[in-house]
Each structure stands twice: as C-alpha cells, then as structure tokens.
Design goal:
This protein is α/β, with parallel strands linked by helices. Helices cover about 35% and strands about 20% of the residues. It is globular and about 50 Å long. The C terminus is likely disordered.
Length: about 140
C-alpha cells in the first residue's frame, strides 16, 4: 500500500464462496456440442460461461444466440454502458446466459439468485483442475 501511495485505504476481504452458484467441470471432447447440450438441459435457468479470450466470448455468445438462446457477451473490451446493460439484464433475469471473461466475475460479486457456471477443460489441464481447493 505504501508503494501505491495509499494512506489508510478501506480494505474489504470476502470469500469467493457463492453458495447460490452451482459449479461444473467437464473434460473437453466436442466443447461446442457439450456446451449446447448442457445449456439446453438448463432451459430457464441462469448461467455464466467463462471463456479465456474476448474473441471466444464473442464467438460463443453469437453461436448461442443463433440457436435461439438468450445470451450476451461480457468482457473488458466492451463499452461501460454495454457491460452495465448486460449485467442489469442478467440480474433481472431478462437474460439467461452471460458468456464472459473474468471481467464479469469481478463485477458480479453481488449476484444473489441461483445460477450455474461451467468450465470445459482439456485433459492436459487435469492436474490443475484436480488440485484441492482450500476452504474459505
């Protein structure tokens, strides 16, 4: 804090635990097919799909929309008013799915409704995925 030149900053610490969010991991086989199948099974339920790049976010959201699924992209490259609109629609349940980078995770800490979050990973990532997570 000294290096940042902050004098007596407000520090807030909270848990990453979100009991209202169901997390799911699945090994990547045919990721788009897997994703579509899962999303269709969740019809009517809100969800967040995290992607590792803005381009992947845009592509995935467009593919979901082309299948008639209520989805929107959310990443730091979008204008503030667009991100705010997506977040507001998601919180009002006017939008089923947000396809996002971690930018949405930082903005969505106040979500209180039940939803799901899916991560489709490559088998090579397995040791990382299976690493135990310390309790909060």
């Amino acid at each position: 804090m000294r290096l940042l030149g902050l004098n007596d900053p407000l520090i807030q610490i909270s848990s990453f635990d979100r009991p209202n969010i169901r997390y799911m991991l699945m090994e990547k086989f045919k990721p788009l097919d897997q994703l579509m199948r899962y999303v269709q099974e969740q019809r009517g339920k809100s969800g967040i799909i995290y992607c590792n790049s803005r381009a992947k976010v845009e592509d995935t959201a467009a593919r979901l929309q082309s299948k008639g699924i209520s989805a929107a992209a959310y990443h730091a490259g979008l204008e503030n008013n667009i991100r705010a609109d997506v977040q507001e629609k998601f919180q009002r349940d006017d939008l089923q799915i947000v396809v996002a980078t971690v930018a949405f995770g930082m903005a969505s800490t106040s979500l209180t409704f039940a939803s799901w979050c899916i991560l489709i990973f490559r088998a090579i990532s397995n040791p990382i995925i299976r690493k135990p997570v310390a309790p909060a």
